What we know:
Layout: H1 3-8, H2 15-46, H3 68-88, H4 118-125, H5 130-142, H6 162-182, H7 190-221
Helix pairs in contact: 4-5, 4-6, 6-7
Amino acid sequence: VTLTTWLWGGFSISDPTLTRFFALHFILPFTIISMSSIHILLLHNEGSSNPLGTNSDIDKIPFHPYHSYKDLLMLTTLITILFMILSFYPDMMNDPENFSKANPLVTPQHIKPEWYFLFAYGILRSIPNKLGGTLALVMSVAILLSSPFTHTSNTRSMMFRPLMQLTFWTFTTTFIIITWAATKPVETPFTEIGQLASIMYFMFFISNPLLGLLENKISYYH
């Protein structure tokens, strides 16, 4: 039994597949809420980080009203923008393919997910093998969880780490390129661009701990 068959619950996409992914979409928001609550609790008890990574208890100020009003302003701004888009530009991020009449006998030439899943879809389709693409898709999200454990630099912030800043913005550019390539048809040169960008995406997480060790040596000798 392959991993793809196990995920599908059979040899093709059927009712078990839909049930499993529906359950995942139902459980995932509660998981995110739980993790966000833990994050806020730890932030309240331990405090946020600072560029030097030193104890900053003497500089702390009350959360209310200094931060609560700022958060309320940002929340109000975001909700206002959201309602303006929903009210006046509801189709701004919609795909023209969604306005075509559904035909069960004709498959659209280029099927793609919503824009926030495009980076994972771009990595999925960059590997011709079905099992390899599925593993790369899972790893593209799971590897994000490894970042706290692969941080090897003595400096917590990137403010004093120019090499890491360059690497980070390269990673950001790579992420945007993968997202852009995933919106294009599966043909040359978009396939090759997506494959190269996918390799660079995973290379960031490999080079991150090595770069931290290198910066530690450079700072030690200086």
